[in-house]
Design goal:
By secondary structure, this protein is α/β, with parallel strands linked by helices. 22% of the residues lie in helices and 22% in strands. The strands form four sheets. The chain has a twelve-stranded mixed beta sheet with strand order 1-2-3-6-8-10-11-13-15-16-17-18, covered by helices on one side. Helix 5 crosses helix 6. The radius of gyration is 22 Å and the shape is globular. The termini are far apart.
Length: 333
């Protein structure tokens, strides 16, 4: 009886474990408190598109109460983002009095704090504009495999961004796209960047940001930077280095060099051969990364034993040096 009347115990809505009837029951029992929505079909299972569409349409009238919203798909299904995100994209209605179009308030995410959208197999190149451009509390975003319209009203207050590039653009176009996003989200404290390649059958329509200058983009509040390499890459993507060369991060405290091919739990894993372009990347770090950082972590193909002493010498204020999950002794370095 106590659980039934404790509204916050019913706030979590899960695609995997709760059917449509239970979703309605749980929403009713929350009595207006915020909701945590998690839609993560089991790995290697095709999403039930009909059930997904029904649950999203059921959710739309309550989207303003969502505190967190997480969609993760591991199996390919065509037009999956259309089904999942269509109901919460910008819905416009015509005002008969003025003849103008305005967004419907039903898709405003007024309480949303964290947004997670991950679908690495996505091949839909469309750009999605979410929540009618309104999410005043949003501060944490995780993206993988999606193009979003990067509106200042939505993403201008972010403090944490974990971004895996969708792969529909490459080279300078991809770098400018991300720089445009970063300039909007200039209050970031934590930033994680990863590039993923995609083989495309046709050219992707891309409207470039017209406010990305050729100079540096400043992230004055950034404290932690993670540079991640996809497990399918054989070398450090040139886009990652080009992006880094355009960033100014004077107050950075932590640099994490992540290799997604490296599995720290597998102690029998054979030592990885360093990236072919590692030497050039490490030289760039000594130009772009402040020597005053306190934490340096590197793993997998980022970790070349011969380069570690030079890095420890350059980053002279290090408190922690972590290589392949093992803390190194800085005193005798």
């Amino acid at each position: 009886m106590l659980a039934i009347h404790t509204h916050t115990l019913w706030r979590r809505l899960s695609f995997c474990s709760h059917g449509l009837r239970l979703w309605k029951e749980r929403i009713a029992r929350t009595r207006g408190c915020s909701l945590d929505v998690t839609i993560t079909p089991p790995q290697y299972h095709f999403p039930d598109m009909d059930a997904l569409a029904l649950q999203l349409h059921l959710l739309v009238p309550h989207i303003s109460r969502a505190r967190s919203f997480e969609l993760r798909f591991s199996s390919y299904s065509p037009f999956l983002w259309n089904t999942a995100l269509g109901p919460i994209c910008c819905l416009e209605q015509r005002d008969d009095n003025t003849g103008r179009y305005a967004f419907t308030p039903s898709v405003y995410a007024l309480k949303l704090e964290k947004l997670t959208l991950c679908y690495p197999e996505n091949d839909d190149t469309k750009e999605f504009a979410l929540f009618g451009g309104i999410a005043p509390r949003l501060h944490n975003v995780i993206l993988d495999g999606i193009r979003l319209t990067w509106l200042p009203e939505l993403y201008g207050r972010l403090t944490h961004l974990d971004y895996t590039h969708h792969g529909f653009t490459a080279g300078k176009t991809a770098v400018d796209e991300i720089l445009g996003m970063i300039r909007v989200s200039c209050a970031l404290r934590e930033l994680r960047i990863c590039f993923r390649r995609k083989v495309l059958d046709e050219e992707v329509l891309y409207l470039p940001y017209d406010n990305v200058p050729e100079g540096q983009t400043h992230l004055l509040q950034l404290e932690q930077l993670d540079l991640a390499i996809d497990e399918s890459d054989v070398d450090i993507p040139p886009e990652l280095l080009s992006l880094l060369s355009r960033l100014s991060v004077p107050n950075l405290r932590e640099l994490h060099l992540v290799d997604l091919r490296f599995k720290p739990a597998n102690r029998r894993q054979r030592k990885s051969v360093p990236f072919p372009g590692l030497e050039g990347a490490l030289s760039l770090f000594q130009v772009t990364i402040p020597s005053s950082i306190k934490v340096l972590a590197m793993a997998g193909r980022w970790a070349d034993p011969s380069s570690i002493p030079a890095l420890a010498k350059y980053f002279r204020e290090l408190d922690d040096l972590d290589v392949d999950g093992v803390e190194r002794d800085l005193v005798h370095m």
